[in-house]
């Protein structure tokens, strides 16, 4: 599936709410570690706050008809250390496995390393999401640690992998 990324804006509030949060996909919520369903006002307030935040770059993942499929985010950008966090969510489980997340990840890594001139991008992925872990590895991320019992979800503890990619690793693969 062809996709495009766009910067999340205030104008996207309604489409963002309808696509990802109005009728949330329970499986997506589980794989992203989401415990509470936010209400519309919380999502709107969140968007209004983050679009003005210089420590993050939030993108919506859209199909060619501008339907929002998910989001991909560079967060906690630290320009002094040239590093940031990364997260991604595809809002509908039926869209998983089609390469959407991989394509969005590669584009956001390009932004991180080529436009923002960062040195390190890191993420956390739950041990019960092996599909995501494989995709991150395909995109060049390496496991660098494990937070044992790092999340308590559905009444049990699960481990959390810490993964990262450095700018020279990105350049060797993609440039």
From TrEMBL:
Listed InterPro entries: Acyl_CoA_acyltransferase (IPR016181), GNAT_dom (IPR000182)
Coiled-coil zones: none
Domain of life: Bacteria
N-acetyltransferase domain span: 19-168
Protein's UniProt name: GNAT family N-acetyltransferase
Organism this protein belongs to: Clostridium hominis
């Amino acid at each position: 599936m062809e996709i495009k990324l766009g910067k999340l804006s205030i104008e996207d509030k309604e489409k963002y709410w309808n696509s990802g949060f109005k009728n949330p996909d329970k499986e997506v919520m589980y794989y992203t570690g989401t415990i509470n369903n936010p209400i519309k006002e919380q999502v709107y307030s969140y968007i209004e706050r983050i679009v003005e935040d210089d420590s993050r770059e939030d993108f919506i993942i859209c199909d060619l008809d501008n339907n929002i499929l998910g989001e991909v985010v560079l967060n906690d950008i630290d320009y002094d250390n040239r590093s940031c966090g990364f997260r991604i969510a595809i809002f509908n489980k039926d869209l998983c496995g089609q390469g959407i997340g991989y394509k969005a990840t590669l584009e956001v890594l390009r932004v991180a390393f080529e436009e923002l001139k960062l040195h390190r991008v890191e993420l956390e992925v739950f041990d019960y999401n092996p599909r995501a872990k494989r995709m991150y590895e395909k995109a060049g991320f390496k496991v660098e640690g494990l937070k044992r019992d790092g999340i308590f979800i559905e009444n049990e503890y699960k481990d959390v992998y810490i993964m990262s990619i450095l700018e020279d690793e990105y350049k060797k693969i993609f440039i």
